[in-house]
Amino acid sequence: MISVDEALERVLSYVDVLEAEQKPILQCLGQVLAEEIHSAIDVPPLDNSAMDGYAIRAVDTVGATESSPRYLAVVGEIAAGSVPKIRVEEGTATRIMTGAPVPQGADTVVQFEHTDEVTRRSSGGDLSRVGVLQEVKKGLNIRRRGEDIARGDLILTTGKPLRPQEIGLLASLGRPTALVVRRPIVAILSTGDELIAVDQPLAHGKIHDSNSYTIAAEVSRYGGIPRILGIGRDSVQSLTEKIEQGLDTDMLITSGGVSKGDYDMVKDVLAEHGEVSFWTVRMKPGKPLAFGVMTRTEGRPARGVPHLGLPGNPVSSMITFEQFARPAILKMMGYTNLTKPTVKAVIEDSIMNRDGRRVFARVIVSKRNGIYHASLTGPQGSGILTSMATANGLAVIPETSREVKAGDMVDVQMLDWRED
Ligand code: AMP
Ligand code: MG
After folding, report:
1. Is the beta carbon of 255 within 6 A of some atom in ligand 1?
2. Would you state the CATH architecture of domain 20-44+151-181?
3. What ligand has the least distance to the C-alpha of 206?
4. How many A from CA of 134 to the centre of ligand 1?
5. How buried is 177 (Cβ within 10 angstroms: 0-12 exposed, 13-18 middle, 19+ buried)?
6. Which one of 75, 89, 200, 298 is at 20 to 30 Å from 237 when CA atoms are compared?
7. Which atom of ligand 1 is the closest one to the Cα of 212?
8. In this predicted structure, what is the pLDDT of residue 359?
9. Beta carbons within 8 Å of 347's beta carbon, 6+ residues apart
10. Model confidence over 4-54: pLDDT tens digits?
């Protein structure tokens, strides 16, 4: 038996960061940047107004108060996106809107609220003049050219995962595409004579194949592209045929057929077609796990495809996916942080751990008075998929701990990361 950490290390040693691809920025969400981004422009490109108000010369407001305003001649108006043609000379002002370029001669913008604009307009007064009601500091309310980004600045570095803000940043730099590490294509195969496709009626002794769906959804969630191969039967021939269809991908994930039963054939197929390790991993659930590299045969260039053989029980397959497939997918995508977000929580139930395995218990995490609490979802059988649906976390009980008691602190891997 090997430890979870050792198994993960071995899995990761078989996958590498994939090649880069150039693509439209809106399709890059969650992908990792494979180039340095320097700005070719200043952002903002011009000095512009941070307020709706009047572009003026600060010196013209010296001594202004509410009772003794300084009056300026209004010589024009500048909307955002327009080009100012008029110069602001001594004793003059132009109306200016937020984001509009500051006209020549002006060094300050005084916002409407500090002028008599509103009373003047509501009383039908003379709009060719404006009274400034206070002294204004030079430079006020002007966003300087290049104050956010200066031309030539290094804005984003290689290895940066792209979130909405980075995608917006690329857009603001006028970059419609970006070079990013491509998404891995992951082939998914469920195995078992008892499995029936989701859209087929159940016959006696059969169950619907759910693993294909949970695994495909997880692959998508972490940024990969799932390719469902369907259901392989418990025969070497059926499995070989199906697996062959998945060998032009970046990774193959099977579920079922890796434990010690008579019909657990996945390991035989693997042994025939690839370099393979069968592991019993010191974890619960999810003890049996196969891992290897499948080699493509006829017609295609020989290339190894990492294969992760997850156990068939729906909960075990999800939990082993989280521990091994997720980090492998993230590594292929160029991520360096492969750990699941983890919090410390007070466990509210006691959990026994008699045989020195790492236990992943399904829990509901909630925050009370600033402290996380985790309670078991109920029955923890590895076939009880509803326990995963109820859970928002996996409490991790270390191999070395024989029992955790209610009230102890435990690490909880968050399945969802929300602050509530
Ligand atoms: P196995 O690992 O093949 O021995 O399967 C263990 C358990 O998981 C059995 O009860 C299977 O029926 C069940 N199982 C295997 N594959 C799937 C699947 N794709 N969807 C739902 N249950 C499955
Ligand atoms: Mg089976």
Report:
1. yes
2. Alpha-Beta Complex (3.90)
3. 1
4. 77
5. middle
6. 200
7. 19
8. 97
9. 363, 374, 375, 395, 404, 405, 406, 407, 408, 409, 410
10. 999 999 999 999 999 999 999 999 999 999 999 999 999 999 999 999 999
390: CA distance to ligand 2 center in Å?
Answer: 25
Q: Is 170 in the pocket of ligand 1 (CB under 6 A)?
A: no
What is the reported pLDDT for 297? 60
- CATH numeric code, 4-17+183-332: 3.40.980.10
Structure tokens at 8: 């993960």
So what's the pLDDT on residue 49? 97
Structure tokens at 189: 């195969």
pTM to 2 decimal places: 0.91
259 CB near ligand 1 (under 6 Å) = yes
Q: 232 CA distance to ligand 2 centroid (A)?
A: 10
* Ranges in the chain, pLDDT < 70: 278, 296-303, 418-420
- Tokens encoding 29: 């969400």
In this prediction, residue 419 carries a pLDDT of: 55
CB burial class (10 A; 0-12, 13-18, 19+) of residue 360? Answer: buried
Q: Which atom of ligand 1 is nearest to the CA of 288?
A: 2
Instruction: Quote the ligand 1 centre to 21 CA distance (angstroms).
Output: 37
* CATH class of the domain at 342-414: mainly beta
| Ligand 1 pocket residue status of 232, Cβ below 6 Å | no
Q: Which superfamily does 48-143 belong to?
A: Molybdopterin biosynthesis moea protein, domain 3. (2.170.190.11)
Q: Which residue has the tokens 């970046």?
A: 250
